[in-house]
Amino acid sequence: AQSVAQPEDQVNVAEGNPLTVKCTYSVSGNPYLFWYVQYPNRGLQFLLKYITGDNLVKGSYGFEAEFNKSQTSFHLKKPSALVSDSALYFCAVRTLNSGYSTLTFGKGTMLLVSP
Amino acid sequence: DSGVTQTPKHLITATGQRVTLRCSPRSGDLSVYWYQQSLDQGLQFLIQYYNGEERAKGNILERFSAQQFPDLHSELNLSSLELGDSALYFCASSVGGQSYTEAFFGQGTRLTVV
Q: Is the pLDDT of residue B4 over 90?
């Protein structure tokens, strides 16, 4: 079964510092990986995806993610955190269900950026 | 704004009742997905429709059902509601079904069962 794990419930970082939100995956075959962000009382917003190609994927709002096949990881990164980045972040993997694609999400990591 | 519209935003109902949640996908998207988000279970995939037909099922209870109409909007029906059904229900849409593109999520319907 396809799955992703987010080992940290919460990540705390000071504004201006680099941030990393961790995700590891377990899939058979080539992984299709995604990051979404959820702000309070809002739906999930797509940040970026890895399908194939460069291991470093750039996304919205200055975020990027690094795909590492040997470590089965897809960590989300940003060089300089903003207070407005504080939100709940979800890693997800494409899952084939009856031949159709759905998303399986991790449990989420709360990112808190302090001023 | 993702382009996915969900109504109502909030719903409070009593145990044993039945409710219907509605979703309008982004223009041009054929796939609609329903997810349930709760504190203890996280984000759980419930069901997917593609161009009017059910395509994939996840952890959806038998008390729950969904459909997608010819105009591609979808409804999720929850019946014999229990306290544990209180959650945020999200609809998402995407262009394709088999070859995956990113899904776009609505703002959700917060269901409270009292």
A: yes
Phi-psi region of B23 (alpha: psi -120 to 50; beta: other; left: phi over 0): beta
Q: What is the DSSP string of A9-31?
A: SEEEEETTS-EEE--EEE-SSS-
B40 at A interface, C-beta within 8 A: no
Single-letter amino acid code for the residue at B76: L
Residue A99 sits at the chain B interface (C-beta within 8 Å): yes
Between CA A21 and CA A19 the distance in angstroms is 7
Q: Do B33 and A103 touch (CB under 8 A)?
A: yes
Q: Smallest Cβ distance to A99: which of B57, B98, B105?
A: B98
Indicate the pLDDT class of residue B100, thresholds 50, 70 and 90: low
- Spatial CA neighbour of B25 closest among B46, B48, B58: B48
Of A32, A43, A44, the CB nearest to B100: A32
Separation CA A48–CA A61 (nearest Å):
10
